[in-house]
Write a structure and sequence with these properties.
Number of strands: 5
Low-confidence stretches: none
Largest sheet: 5 strands, antiparallel
Shape: globular
Strand content: 35-45%
Mean pLDDT: 92
Helix content: 10-25%
């Protein structure tokens, strides 16, 4: 799933608005898997989810040549 970061908290949890308009929260554990240190509102990300549709990883989308 892809979306835009709507908020990012000090505890490294946050929320993303998907391209469909649905809001999806992620917890600090899902952010820790990413290896990132910070996200800013408006940043585009991809979310990896498990079978229960819980976010397990947050990745920054990059443009490839």
């Amino acid at each position: 799933m892809q979306g835009t970061v709507s908020n990012f908290n000090e505890d490294t949890s946050g929320e993303v608005v998907l391209d469909t308009g649905r809001r999806v929260a992620f917890d600090a554990a899902a952010f820790a898997v990413s290896g990132l240190r910070f996200l800013r509102p408006g940043q585009r990300v991809a979310l990896d989810c498990d079978e229960a549709d819980r976010v397990v990883a947050v990745r920054i989308l990059t443009m490839r040549p």
